[in-house]
Amino acid sequence: MKQFDIGIIHRHEDDNLNGDYAIIIEDYLESYYLVEHWSFELNNEVEVTDLKKEYLRLATEYEIKEFQIKFKEYCDKNASGNG
């Protein structure tokens, strides 16, 4: 995986994170990525964090399209001042 790829968090110790999206910002350590973690949960939509590479897999085309839809909804909601 490379910078700006969209991944899906999986096999993470915290089951609440599994299935969330992560965009790779930087491949900064041998076994870690710096990522934007997108959960799209109210008041906890995004955070920048490090993530073990083993907990991230490349998103499928379908998952990327889902992310794009959710991201557009997030942007529209926040642009209208309702976020």
How would you sum up this structure, described in words?
The chain is an alpha+beta fold and 83 residues long. The protein has one domain (6-79): SH3 type barrels. Helix content is 23%, strand content 42%. It is built from one helix and five strands; from the N terminus they run βββββα. The chain has one helix spanning 61-79; strands spanning 6-9, 21-29, 32-41, 44-52, 56-58. A five-stranded antiparallel beta sheet has the order 4-3-2-1-5, covered by helices on one side. A hairpin with a 2-residue loop joins strand 2 (21-29) and strand 3 (32-41). It starts with 5 loop residues before the first strand and ends with a helix. The model has no long low-confidence stretch (mean pLDDT 92).
Strand content: 35-45%
Radius of gyration: 13 Å
Number of helices: 1
CATH class descriptor: Mainly Beta
Q: What is the global morphology? A: globular
In quaternary terms, these chains amount to single chain
Task: Write a brief structural summary.
Helices cover 23% and strands 42% of the residues.
Which key phrases capture this entry?
83 residues; 5-stranded antiparallel sheet; 1 helix; 23% helix; 42% strand
Topology of this structure?
Blueprint: E1 6-9, E2 21-29, E3 32-41, E4 44-52, E5 56-58, H1 61-79
Antiparallel strand pairs: 1-2, 1-5, 2-3, 3-4
